[in-house]
Amino acid sequence: MAQIIEIGELKAARERTRRQTENHRSAERALSLMRESLIRAAEQLITAPVAAHQELLERIEKLAATIRYGMVMMGSPIAENFAEDSDHLP
Question: Could you tell me if residue 76 is left (phi over 0), alpha (psi between -120 and 50 degrees) or otherwise beta?
Answer without folding.
Answer: beta
